[in-house]
């Protein structure tokens, strides 16, 4: 049966011999990939055939058949065995006894088994009722017994499949779509399921089933290699974990990469994503073809003849023009019969733009012909090529499928060679939904909705396409991206002035959101620094739209109406500076009437006063707007204990928490600790000193925070105030309470996060030192930071807290006790102390 000696040993020695031979096969380093999978299948074939021969002397009317993955003749180290005991309807007791003698040795070795016992008629009936059973039988392979019985079943099952294809293929398509909705897309997931996710091994099997129907066929180029790659990764995963798993978890990726001889986990994911992309694209093309064939079959020949007769005997026109050299046919954009790609270098972009504008997929045959024959574009590009690229990017959601078609045949990297470094590049950040290349296209899709807001839509769309292009290079991706953007802009034909704007947009695409969420916007130095970096109002307008498009394309955690309102506020202030409007030198805005009222009451009572205001958030893609002053507020002073509740309406996404406290030490860690005790997540935080009205001596600290409950509803404000009073007077040991809770409910071990980093932001403010903290978000983090700052003897003038997924990025404006910025060496010492406190 095989040239390897292990099969003979397995047959001679029974289960023990098979187990030893199997172990030796899986641990020897000489064989891996397809040869090992084939050898393992052959070894298992021989063992099972031996079990069958020892269990029965019958050679007619009964057979052992491998189905499903095992039927395809390739086994991964921990794959289960899909077996069918096929019989001609003989005595049930004899068949049951034979089945026991086959199944129990498999179970005794701890191998998972999917088994069934059926007659050919029962097998066909079950297949007709259960699509998954039918798919498994398409790969039926004879192992032992009556070969004629197995062959007749296989012939009948294939005939049934082909006869029932018009009914079963739509059912299979729906099954694939439902699984994709449930499992996600393999080519974008950080912890993908290699089998179940879209573009995984199940989809590859579905494409084999479509081909077996003879109704349509999948694109074959690269498909077998993509499936092989995923199987190789699954083999390595099985060996690394010792388990039958298809989930490529983060903590196993480095070991799997090493098993495959790859550089690191990123190289592993990139290979997985490339394979998944091939399978996903093949699926898209195949299911479109299936739909086209089924639609054409549904139109009766007589009806077609009648329609042709109404047109004077001429056939109904099947093609309609879309652009020069591009027509629509059967729901796809295809090349016109007169198209000459070898003479028309702009045709690939023109065809792509026409398809996207019409909301049509670009025919695979058209893309392949363009890739094979189209002339390269000259440098710089002609104006038409640049305009067609802008048109493609500005087409909105249809851009994605057209871009994927160009990617599948290598046309994108031919047009933009720098694209290769970001293609299929993973982003190990839970905030990001996409790989780098797909994120760039998603940003262009979002930016297409903002083209009416800017004076130069073309620059916005090109900047969206290029803003993260530097992530394929070492160092700061914004700096590297600026250089690449200059080169690409010149290559595609932008003049010097436009190239400079694009370079600025790419270099500073994070400037607005980082400044708005991590800096004090009332500090004139903050606004002047942004104005100096941006340069002109037109560039600011483009950068504002790019910022929102980038955040919306990143994922839901990257954008909110609150972030949008902060960015809009910053843009308004910077626009005033660029327009030459006089800027106030006062660093702190005047308190509102409500803030002043809370400050006076805090001073009068000598204790903290709280006010809660619900902040319901509109959809992320709606225009950002600051919270309305008329929103309902819920004050909590000694005389008014109340709190918002979900009974008042929809549960708020966040709640504004205003706290006024007489100026004293320890306010920041006390408030942060109390909120952590009550399982409140701090989304943003600002802290500043508010002077009291004229005639009243002293000052009050005002904390303006956005918080949300981790679980359930918000606690009563009166409880928050009571705990805060105790925390400030020292009768509540917050650190001990948080430690007790962590000990009672230890967090699960997961992937080791990168170490925290604390830096001093140079020249960020004239009146304070800005210390930036980047760390893994965790309950009590802000409490630990506040306590460390208190221990360092610095005064926190304001704090700006921002959380992106699992990452906290906080900025603290600190001064010495007398209100002056820290000297350089002292600031560095404070930063080191904060970092050490987070590492312990």
Would you mind describing this structure in some detail?
- By secondary structure, the protein is α+β, with helices and mostly antiparallel strands.
- Strands 9-8-10-12-11 form a 5-stranded antiparallel sheet.
- Helices cover 52% and strands 13% of the residues.
- The radius of gyration is 33 Å and the shape is globular.
- Keywords: Hydrolase, Magnesium, Multifunctional enzyme, Nucleotidyltransferase, Repeat, Transferase.
- It comes from Streptomyces lividans TK24.
- Residues 436-559 form the HD domain.
What is the secondary structure topology, with strand pairs?
Blueprint: H1 5-27, H2 33-55, E1 62-66, H3 68-71, E2 81-87, H4 92-108, E3 113-118, H5 120-129, H6 131-137, E4 141-145, H7 147-163, H8 165-183, H9 201-212, H10 223-241, H11 250-259, H12 265-298, H13 301-309, E5 319-323, E6 326-329, E7 332-335, H14 347-358, H15 364-373, H16 383-393, H17 398-408, H18 411-415, H19 436-448, H20 457-466, H21 477-491, H22 496-507, H23 511-518, H24 524-534, H25 537-554, H26 561-578, H27 593-605, E8 609-615, E9 633-636, E10 654-662, H28 667-677, E11 680-691, E12 699-709, H29 717-729, H30 734-744, E13 757-761, E14 769-776, H31 781-791, E15 795-804, E16 807-815, H32 824-839
Parallel strand pairs: 2-3
Antiparallel strand pairs: 1-2, 1-4, 5-6, 6-7, 8-9, 8-10, 10-12, 11-12, 13-14, 14-16, 15-16
Helix pairs in contact: 1-2, 5-6, 5-7, 8-9, 8-12, 9-12, 10-11, 10-12, 11-12, 14-16, 14-17, 19-20, 19-25, 20-22, 20-25, 21-22, 23-26, 24-26, 25-26, 28-29, 28-30, 28-31, 31-32
